[in-house]
Amino acid sequence: MAYSIKTYAGTGAAGAFTTPEYLDSSHIEVYVDDVLKTVTTHYTITGTTVSFTAGNFPTSSNTIKIIRKSSQGTRLVDYTDGAVEVAATFDEDSKQSLFIAQEALDGVEAVGFTTFQPLKVAPAAPTTGMVYYDAPTNKLKVYTGSAFVDLH
Predict the structure, then answer these.
(1) Which of 12, 54, 64, 84: CA 20 to 30 A from 115?
(2) Does pTM surpass 0.70?
(3) What is the DSSP letter of 20?
(4) How many whole angstroms separate alpha carbon 44 and alpha carbon 30?
């Protein structure tokens, strides 16, 4: 189950497509057939609803993906010594961490691809199914439980 991704078929109308829960609308990205769309140009967000603008309605042959990508580099909450905090502040801080963890779980599905860090030597103590990019041979390799083999 994807936590940070909602997938829909187009309807040929503006639609009312629900977003994943988010903290700020800037954390939402909308794709139609894997092409990133622009907020206000192609769609609008009101609350947790995405609606497409006139001339940009996805047809039934289109796939819509609404993806949450929370701020990972910037904390949304900054606590101050001696300040009295309210529950909403703690909720926002907790949700940011939860959402980032959910997005990590959804990982590859969210973007449709991943990038491997090239390594000059195989990872130490591999586990079955581990994949790495072998820089000297320019090949992906998978650990079978006893050895790394080329992926073809």
Answers:
(1) 64
(2) no
(3) P
(4) 10
Residues 6+ apart with CB under 8 A from 103: 3, 4, 68, 69, 70, 110
As a whole number of angstroms, the distance between CA 126 and CA 8 comes to 38
Q: Which residue has the tokens 């101050």?
A: 80
- Provide the residue ranges of all domains of the chain, joining segments of one domain with +: 5-111, 118-150
Strand partners, 148: 143
- Per-residue model confidence as pLDDT tens for the chain (152 residues): 788 999 999 999 888 999 999 999 999 999 999 899 999 999 999 999 999 999 999 999 999 999 999 988 888 888 888 888 889 889 999 999 999 888 887 774 545 556 677 788 888 888 888 888 888 998 888 888 899 998 86
Distance between first and last Cα of the chain:
29
Structural tokens at position 35: 């092409």
